[in-house]
Amino acid sequence: MKIDFGLQAADLDRDIDRMWQLSARKIRSLEQSYPPELGAPVFTVSGRYTAKGWTDWTQGFQFGAEILQFDATGESEFLELGREHTMRHMASHLTHVGVHDHGFNNVSTYGNLRRLMLEGRIELNSRELDCYELALKVSGAVQASRWSTTVDGDGYICSFNGPHSLFCDTIRSLRSLAMSHQLGHRFLGENDQHINLLDRLLQHARTTARWNVFYGEQRDAYDVRGRVAHESIFNVNDGRYRCPSTQQGYSPFSTWTRGLAWIMAGYSEELEWLATRSDEELAPLGGRDANEQIMRRAAEAACDFYIENTPLDGIPYWDTGAPGLVHLGDYLLRPADPFNDHEPVDSSAAAIAAQGLVRFGQYLAQQKIGDGERYYQAGLTVLRTLLRSPYLSEADDHQGLLLHTVYHRPRGWDHVPPGAKVPCGESCMWGDYHLREAANYVMRLTRRMPYFTFFGPVTRHDG
Asked: What is the CATH number of the domain that holds 231?
């Protein structure tokens, strides 16, 4: 991609304000036409949101979007919607033992509400705050209980596929363990054994960095630095790594770009959170330097791979090895084409990656290490593209906010409009949410608002 080094965050203010105006209309439309009892909306078909059963991981994005809308605009109607929906419909997600998605569903809802209360954006109510924090404690413990061990003494949160499966997506669900640990939760197992949530967070981060991210070290014939495998497979009998795999990408040896983006965003925000922990609590768990180095190496490799393998405008195709790309010629030397006849783009990957790039750049600058400006400017460049045509959804009869997203290309779940040959023109819950989240993050950088993190202000009451 071509990074615009002259672009300033303030240059996006007008586009961001317009996005929030459009966002309000989209949220109202969904609220009026899609009762929560229908299940979580997943993606649009001909501009209307619909459910898609596989795993229930998008409801937190629906209600979290309402909370972010209030966060950005101060419109109280959206706070009331987000708060009411969270309290009425999200409890089952707190104790869902069958998924790896707690960081998506619960930190996007209970976590955002807690953050806004501690920032003073919502009137402080100690009972309400206790409710949000109890929910986050429970969610992190339940997520951490979905655990498999590896032969080297570490382990990982296993995906919904089973105990053999480690998804790259789950790096962003570590935020649920981080919140539970930060709030001082004591997670107990058999015989009242204390299970250290910080330890499990660090183990999962190390295992993902070791096996799902590649560093050009000839692990296999396709080991390119920064390439990300969607899934790593382990032998559950002895904990040994067996092979890369994928559920939503083209192949185990190519890079599904949304998975790449999860790595970029997940490690960047965990690095920020790790900086708030004391040396004393990190010392028996490998120490600060070693753990930060592992996370930073993974984030940097993935961010570099994204920059090097994405078209000029910063919008990736859905998989870097998708077979139809060969018919597009020098597709990296021009802006992405969501209307081509061969392979779809995935703007939802771009929305996640934009935040990962900007956040990683900010982290490096704060730590005074590395080339933070390069990543920061790359993230702004991607976000600028997403905030404009043809990616920002302007039509009143389309419920999505971010166009040209893809969910599951191999299974053919995404809508192909009449006259087109590949999916295009549709939206998804995580794409809409992460565009809002990235816009909120960048907006706060220019308007003297508190720095936006998933963990919010760290108070003296936190663990």
From this structure: 1.50.10.10
